[in-house]
């Protein structure tokens, strides 16, 4: 191959790589708690949020359905130009991330990346727990996947992990009942059930991105001194580190500090509650899945 051909090919390759926003996906509103922290820590980037509110909650759905819905969302965010997608949903991270990374990405586009929220949460557990006894609160899907148990055992084999599925917490949040008195019963119920499994637990992992909205109540009903880990800041710090280690990905991100929102539900329904999560006014567009 002569020099001019090589140059021409390199130029064609470079022009094929266009810049795009960071995609942030959740089944509904929960991922907004992650987006909020991403924007605080990495304000220079553009973000495209997608909430599959019309099909939320995912937590009680089967592996096949969660995987199919998550893959559809990832494809949608790729089609809209995102070189990198964060699954800001534990259920999707637990049930779909590995399959998408290993089986789908190589054929869709091996230069793009999909990252989850479980690993960044587990990585810091040795710095926060003194007893090494961890309690994970999550959706039935996340708990059944055992993803937290598997990840913790990989990094910290001596830690003890107990899990508690909280099937009603996401519906409580999605229906704006998170600060209502009615929520108290179910918050206390699942915390008591978790502590009954292992009274030595000193750290709760809020293993669902909806749960920060219930954090005040969780704090109220948790035994004194329990450390409560929310994921937003952990995921943001982990992404910052990832982009530092992957300048080729960082160079593909738009840096205008803008954010756009997509929902599979009616935007009129999405926007008011989304604003409560983001602490800013939200104006979303409809994104329909076939
Ligand atoms: N925010 C999702 C998670 O982190 C909620 C899952 C659901 O839709 O049930 O697991």
Strand content: 15-25%
Which ligands does the model contain, each kind named once? Answer: D-glutamic acid
Count the strands?
A: 10
Computed Rg: 20 Å
Q: Averaging pLDDT over every residue, what do you get? A: 93
State the secondary-structure class. Answer: alpha/beta
| SSE pattern | HEHEHEHHEHHEHHEHHEHEHHEHE
Could you explain how this protein is built, in words?
The protein has 290 residues and is an alpha/beta fold. Helix content is 49%, strand content 16%. The protein contains 15 helices and ten strands. The protein has helices spanning 3-16, 31-41, 63-79, 90-95, 97-108, 118-122, 125-128, 140-145, 147-155, 169-174, 182-197, 215-221, 232-245, 247-250, 267-278, and strands spanning 22-26, 47-51, 84-87, 113-115, 133-138, 160-165, 203-207, 227-229, 259-263, 284-286. The protein has a six-stranded parallel β-sheet, sandwiched between helices. The chain has a four-stranded parallel β-sheet with strand order 6-5-7-8, sandwiched between helices. Strand 7, helix 12 (215-221) and strand 8 (227-229) form a beta-alpha-beta unit. Helix 2 (31-41) packs across helix 13 and helix 3 packs across helix 5 (97-108). The radius of gyration is 20 Å and the shape is globular. The N and C termini lie far apart (45 Å). 43% of the residues are buried. It binds D-glutamic acid (DGL). D-glutamic acid binds next to helix 4. D-glutamic acid binds at residues 26-28, 30, 56-59, 89-91, 139, 142, 170, 208-210.
